[in-house]
Design brief:
By secondary structure, the protein is mainly α. It is built from eleven helices and no strands. It is elongated.
């Protein structure tokens, strides 16, 4: 008898829930992110000026610090534009993989390899006395960590980028390890 009362009370709610479909505007919309290829190309163009500053002869400590800070900011901006494992909605990553399928894996790998090569060569070209300055050394370490985060984010969206980078950067192994065998060297050279 008590069950019949609850069933009769719940019947209007069950009927309205089944009769009304979810409106399309009520579906959660995720913010559109850039293509991975666009992100890495933007990164490449953004770091071009700071890289050229670092490659000049007799660069001052202040200019080197400003250039390294610009590179770090560009890497952090690119990392934020690529979805990473910190995305709380798994559905967001699943939806973004549709966009990622259109990106050409080799193009992204080639641009990333060029970015990494440019950064490593520019930092390697700095005079030893500049590299030993605490602030510049900390910036170089931060750039290494930022590149690592960017590569992991790209790898989540485009599976196989790290394998392509391993092939493209095989000649850079000695330079990467001479920079202290940071996270980036361990990720690519493993």
């Amino acid at each position: 008898m008590l069950f019949i009362r609850f069933a009769l009370l719940a019947l209007p709610f069950i009927g309205s829930a089944l009769a009304t479909p979810v409106a399309k505007s009520d579906v959660v919309q995720f913010e559109k992110r850039d293509d991975v290829l666009d992100v890495v190309k933007t990164l490449q163009s953004t770091i071009a000026d700071p890289i050229s500053t670092l490659k000049t002869d007799n660069v001052s400590a202040d200019d080197a610090q400003a250039a390294l800070s610009s590179i770090l900011d560009a890497i952090n901006t690119a990392s934020a534009a690529v979805p990473t494992s910190t995305t709380t909605e798994k559905r967001a990553l699943e939806g973004l993989t549709e966009l990622a399928k259109r990106d050409d894996l080799n193009d992204v790998g080639t641009v990333l390899a060029q970015v990494i090569t440019d950064i490593v060569n520019a930092v390697e070209g700095l005079a030893d006395d500049l590299q030993s300055l605490p602030l510049i050394g900390a910036l170089i370490t931060s750039i290494d960590g930022g590149l690592h985060t960017l590569l992991l984010g790209v790898e989540i969206v485009l599976k196989g980028v790290i394998q392509i980078l391993q092939g493209l950067l095989s000649g850079l192994g000695s330079l990467l390890s001479s920079l202290g065998a940071g996270l980036l060297a361990g990720l690519i050279l493993v």
